[in-house]
């Protein structure tokens, strides 16, 4: 079975219970976080009577772990958009990636009942989600009462109701619909897939929702029939759609909140890291996403925060809190400029080194990265910028102009008047700061993620400035 929009995968996963899931992925962009695609089930007690299985399945049987690996490889662009290659050396578990530019939906429907849709839903200029790829999938579905569309893409609340209405208008009322939002994080998708916090299923209480729950059973808690950690939430479609948007908006709110606290700490002499630690010890708050820095980015938080804000506005409600979250995040990306100017004066002719470009470590994703804003602002103020990122350089070159790209951290800081840590890659935490100090012309180090060891930086004779930690600034 071959499926593709731009980079596809066809694979079948055999579970220990004997259930076989045939999986195919069609991605709108090899770096889209809204992709996870498609997928389906062969004979299973939760499904209607089985299809005629006389046709030979065109996919190989592979373990669940390989399915997760495939998803992750596609998620992070490890498999080129145009390639034919296997990611498993064992021929019995080989998976072939191909680019055909079209989808043979007939093959998929003959061998599958659950079709997981994970196409991109990028923001439009208005901030609303672009659902054109979703609508294209819906339009390609034939009339059937034995299939279900399972939505993995992040879509606005109401999309499921709209799709069901369209199915009815097109004489496809028997086609079932399930909302099953994905919660994988870039950089840890395999672990998230195999050990999820929760699996959310929104359905109409029919066989399709039961089938999706059964398909995910191996990754649920033992008392739910699984072998992993996942909680299961069965709810209505609209609530499932809202869960994804609300979760990401809340996490983004925590980040903007702690960044605001960091800014106040700079004015009052408090250490935001100690404040965040004290806050995180409260079980009602928890320590996650209380890491101050120079703003969040990526494909999910900015898009989903704006999407929820637009959804609220379109529904007649003014979501004031999310307006503040967005504004704080944009301003936070620019705070490095004031820090540099405070200690160096005019930036005209200054050499500034940026360590890290991706929006976070363990990915090459440059979407909404703080480095995009920072590099542009530095150049606008007359500075010359050199940057290094261990993974994201190729993507960064497509989006950043006027920047010199270095091959390693030491080369990046050669002759630099100041160094700014933008992305907290592990290799930056263990750098030889004595060597870095010798290579630099100036002495200013701005830790934009509070990830460096202040004592190590200062011991090398450098001046250290963090986010929300005034007591550490410039101390010797």
Give structural notes:
The protein has a six-stranded parallel β-sheet with strand order 14-13-12-15-16-17. Strands 3-2-1-4 form a four-stranded mixed β-sheet. The protein has three domains: 7-235, 3-Layer(aba) Sandwich (Rossmann fold), CATH 3.40.50.720; 246-330, N-(1-d-carboxylethyl)-l-norvaline Dehydrogenase, domain 2, CATH 1.10.1040; 333-472, Rossmann fold (3-Layer(aba) Sandwich). The protein has helices at residues 64-75, 105-111, 132-140, 159-169, 189-194, 207-216, 237-268, 272-280, 301-314, 320-332, 335-344, 370-380, 393-399, 409-413, 426-429, 433-439, 454-459, and strands at residues 7-14, 20-27, 39-41, 61-62, 85-86, 96-97, 114-117, 148-151, 176-179, 198-202, 231-235, 351-355, 384-388, 404-405, 418-421, 444-447, 463-465. The chain contains 17 helices and 17 strands. Helix 7 crosses helix 9 and helix 7 packs across helix 10 (320-332). With 476 residues, the protein is an alpha/beta fold. Helices cover 36% and strands 15% of the residues.
Helix fraction, binned, reads 25-40%
The main sheet comes to: 6 strands, parallel
Count all strands and give the number.
17
* Integer average pLDDT: 80
The share of residues in extended strands comes to: 5-15%
- CATH fold field value of the largest domain: Rossmann fold
* Rg over C-alpha atoms, rounded to the nearest angstrom: 24 Å
Structural class: alpha/beta
Query: How many angstroms does the end-to-end distance come to?
Result: 64 Å
CATH architecture of the largest domain: 3-Layer(aba) Sandwich
